[in-house]
Design brief:
The complex is a heterodimer. By secondary structure, chain A is mostly beta strands. Chain A has strands at about 5, 10-15, 20-25, 30-40, 40-50, 55, 65-70, 75-80, 90-95, 105, 110-115. Chain A has no helices and eleven strands. In chain A, strands 2, 4, 5, 6, 9, 10 and 11 form a seven-stranded mixed β-sheet that branches. Chain A has a four-stranded antiparallel β-sheet with strand order 1-3-8-7, with no helix packed on it. Chain A starts with a strand and ends with a strand. Chain B has strands at about 5, 10-15, 20, 25, 30-40, 45-50, 55-60, 65-70, 75-80, 85-95, 100-105, 110-114. Classes of the chains: A mainly beta, B mainly beta. The interface of A and B includes residues 31, 50, 100, 101 and 106 of A.
């Protein structure tokens, strides 16, 4: 299995531009997570999907952030408009099952820089 | 509120020395406990986990961790550190009764001197 796939690996954009981050979970996994990692705030859960349905989006910073999961093999995290404070590493993770003991498998991350 | 504390931000050890990374949690019941490792430029990889049973759990790469209920701790240990262990280590806690949300500690960055 290829593991969780994220694209792009690096993104540099200018303030005000739209940014779309992509994630392909491990085949057969039914839970998907988007995390943001920064020096100041550490690793934060942004949104969690189960069976393609958003279950908890309480970590989404503001309306500029949106996430979708149109099918079991693809998810996007969109920032529109982007701001310099959005610069971070964004991780996607997936797991099989919806319980806290289910191992989460992380992708390599997308490093976003907003100038 | 549930929380996870990793008191040490940075730790430096010599290659071959023993290692212990600390993790404390705040929760009214026994949580699910995890240790993840993040190498530079990589995602997080699970080292080991504890749900119930034997409080000493073995993981990959020669790591082990011990759950101590009385201290609300889940410290990670390795008897002899290798240079390749230099990375950032995250303790994470999950809670029963809800979905599979994890709360991560702030991480401990490990440096290994030759």
């Amino acid at each position: 299995d290829a593991g969780v796939i994220q694209s792009p690996r690096h993104e540099v954009t200018e303030m005000g531009q739209e940014v779309t981050l992509r994630c392909k979970p491990i085949s057969g996994h039914n839970s998907l997570f988007w995390y943001r990692q920064t020096m100041m705030r550490g690793l934060e859960l942004l949104i969690y999907f189960n069976n393609n349905v958003p279950i908890d989006d309480s970590g989404m910073p503001e309306d500029r952030f949106s996430a979708k999961m149109p099918n079991a093999s693809f998810s996007t995290l969109k920032i529109q408009p982007s701001e310099p404070r959005d610069s971070a590493v964004y991780f996607c993770a997936s797991s099989l099952g919806d319980q806290a003991y289910n191992e989460q498998f992380f992708g390599p991350g997308t490093r976003l820089t907003v100038l | 509120a549930q929380s996870v504390t990793q008191p040490d931000i940075h730790i430096t050890v010599s290659e071959g020395a023993s290692l212990e990374l600390r993790c404390n949690y705040s929760y009214g019941a026994t949580p699910y406990l995890f240790w993840y490792v993040q190498s530079p430029g990589q995602g997080l990889q699970l080292l080991l986990k504890y749900f119930s049973g034997d409080t000493l759990v073995q993981g990959i790469k020669g790591f082990e961790a011990e759950f101590k209920r009385s201290q609300s701790s889940f410290n990670l240990r390795k008897p002899s550190v290798h240079w390749s262990d230099a990375a950032e280590y995250f303790c994470a806690v999950g809670f029963s009764g809800g979905y599979n949300k994890l709360i991560f500690g702030a991480g401990t960055r490990l440096a290994v001197h030759p």
